[in-house]
Specification:
Two copies of one chain form a homodimer. The first copy, chain A, is of the alpha+beta class. Helices cover 30% and strands 26% of the residues of chain A.
């Protein structure tokens, strides 16, 4: 993986009332930044979704307790060590990190949130974490440093911004994320009382983490509902390798620092505007994660339309996005639409293949049960770029969904095989 | 893929009353054998299971019609061309092949069965198929030639034999199979009226095919029931790449040539003896397919025990067997049990990770929610061989299931990426 190259846009500190920063405190042997802090100048309404995995990491278990009162003012994240399969010591270390974050924010520990990503099965070097937490410079220009310090095997920084209007006021929404490998999110906010059972060990742990901030004042229940809706159409629709991580987390904070009236479900236009901003930021970050998958050279965007319902469209799009044979074919630019039809047939969704149509880019390659006869050289043009668009029409109804993935290269296998526990 | 190296054992012609053979008729540019015939000296009770894919190939659609009377006497198989996405012409060619088989067997066309595997989207060279069908030498020693001629990218021949006793008589059961890639069978006999919609094109098509013969006399309904039971515990538990093919087919013939009384469900001991023989042959062939996966260097055998029910055990075992991250780690001998626990957590099966235990070989590496502290060098011994045994105990009940897979290597990606439509 190359070093992150994108210029920072300080997304999470662009909304009013947020400060952030990041430092290298020595958790990573590489000396790269590995500790990040994000604070709000006041308690913020908070909502989060966590992996549905049965194997949740210790920090997620602590966060699920923290969110029983859905307000957060301080977020601390370390990379380089996932604090996973660390049992009672790991839970204690996660709670110590909550205290360090609250101390820097000058808030109660109840208002803190913690994430860790990296190697599993090792205790955190808490002395370094303490030093780092004290050293982080918090500023309204620190969003880029925060976004940089949460990365592990990522090839580039992932940030996004949007604005929206509600109740006559304009608000800002910012976000950043990290991804790379072990990416097949299955995020849910309904499992706040999930099993508290530690997490797997021996794993380099390239989870997905995302942090979203807005200066609007949004009621927590509404925030949770809209976050799940947006996540189901963004992070929950990406896949790098089909392996869902044990630490996947998305957190959103709404601190109301821009003033204005609180956004409630009654303000339909305001909610719609917020939805659009949230969806655009989540989609941008999710697509960056798919494009930045380990070893990836191409982004795959798979849109399934003409489905009987959205669940059917999602099932077909997700199944095609994880086909190892299709991902391998596309890595060398083979316009192998046969593997698209093969994969579509395995989603457990009945369809009439006489009605099925498959496009690569703008070329219709499959219709009426067979090839449309487009020359391979012409079809190859449709998959030659660094983004491959696949469109599948099931010919059944009006529902559609889009999934994003990436190609499968020898580099992915080398990268994940050569890593030794 | 290397050339097949195992010596033939003529499995499908070892039971009484069967003759078979294979020739190179020129379908494969390589000049390797590509046309196979199997005939019984009398009509045989027949049962078959086909892929659950929505994208069934033309020959399967013809066979589903043939089996409305479940008796077969002649089987013709070509490799090198899957006769897929060939529409009306493909259906006509498949029926012509039924006629060629019936002619060689001296039976009615209603008693013939046809399979094709290889390139998709090309019409069969029927002149060569006709010549080949006429040239094949049928003999009781031709089982190996049949098994050889059905192969595509397989590295070796796959044959197996067993005997069983029922009603005081001894019977023989033989089988052969081909596999290699696009292997994640999902076979079912309950879809005889599946959609007739052609099949995907543009695909090198390394499907799984298996043919079983016995000289016992078994009622077709019983034969279908016991075949599905055995397939659910063998072929339906293997995966090479998680991609289910459009042509997967398993056929069994019971011709009664060894005499004795017909086997019925009332003869519980006889059925149990037949089950044991059928299971052993299907398991042997299925494991050979997993071990012989494209690019594979290791066979993975994943046993899940302590499950609440068999469906839960199957879900966890299948999910672990398809984890790209785990398969990549094992290709270089990394005893990465963390990826086993990660994958097990994604099967949609709830479990208490405090009760979960994971073994690699005979080493217990995960228990009580964390590492058992076995040294990596010691753990590495457990995955050093060409067969890696993984055992997972969910600590919930008495149900268990075993899935088989293979490691993921750069060669698999190279092989499937460099293939061009």
């Amino acid at each position: 993986m190359s070093e992150p190259t994108r210029p920072p846009i300080n997304a999470v500190t662009t909304p009013a009332g947020y400060r952030a920063g990041g430092v290298a405190c020595g958790i990573k042997a590489s000396g790269q930044p590995d500790l990040a802090l994000l604070v709000s100048d006041r308690p913020a309404a908070a909502a989060a979704v966590f992996t549905r995995s049965q194997s949740k990491a210790e920090p997620l278990l602590v966060d699920q307790e923290q969110l029983r009162d859905p307000h957060i003012q301080a977020v601390i994240v370390n990379s380089g060590n996932a604090n996973c399969a660390t049992g009672a010591q790991g839970l204690a270390d996660a709670r110590t990190m909550l205290g360090l974050a609250a101390e820097r924010a000058g808030c109660a520990v109840d208002l803190a949130f913690v994430s860790s990503t990296g190697i599993i099965g090792h205790f955190l070097p808490m002395d370094r974490v303490r030093e780092g937490a004290a050293e982080v410079t918090l500023s309204a220009e620190g969003g880029g440093d925060f976004a940089r310090a949460i990365l592990t095997t990522d090839g580039f920084m992932k940030e996004a911004l949007a604005t929206f209007e509600a109740g006559g006021a304009t608000y800002t929404l910012g976000g950043c994320a990290k991804g790379a490998g072990m990416i097949h999110p299955n995020l849910d906010g309904a499992n706040m009382d999930g099993p508290h059972m530690g997490a797997p060990a021996g794993e380099r742990h390239a989870t997905m983490l995302a942090y979203l901030t807005t200066d609007a004042d949004i009621e927590p229940g509404l925030l949770q509902e809209r976050l799940q809706y947006a996540v189901d159409r963004s992070f929950n629709m990406i896949s790098v390798d089909g392996d869902t991580s044990t630490s996947d987390t998305v957190l959103i904070l709404a601190n109301g620092a821009a003033g204005g009236t609180p956004l409630t479900a009654a303000d339909r236009d305001g909610v719609a505007a917020f939805d659009a901003a949230l969806r655009s930021v989540c989609e941008s970050l999710a697509i960056d994660i798919a494009r930045g998958g380990e070893g990836a050279t191409k982004l795959l965007a798979i849109t399934v339309q003409g489905a009987a319902d959205r669940d059917a469209a999602v099932a077909v799009a997700r199944t095609v996005s994880t086909s190892v044979l299709l991902k391998a074919a596309l890595s060398k630019g083979d316009p192998n639409w046969g593997r698209v039809v093969m994969a579509a047939g395995n989603a457990g969704v009945p369809f009439d293949r006489a009605m099925l149509r498959v496009w690569l880019g703008d070329r219709l390659l499959y219709a009426d049960g067979g090839s449309t006869g487009i020359a391979p050289a012409d079809a190859a043009q449709a998959v030659a770029g660094d983004t491959v668009r696949i469109r599948i029409d099931l010919g059944q109804g009006d529902a559609e969904a889009t999934a994003w993935g990436c190609d499968l290269t020898e580099e992915y296998v080398r990268f994940n095989a050569d890593y030794v526990t």
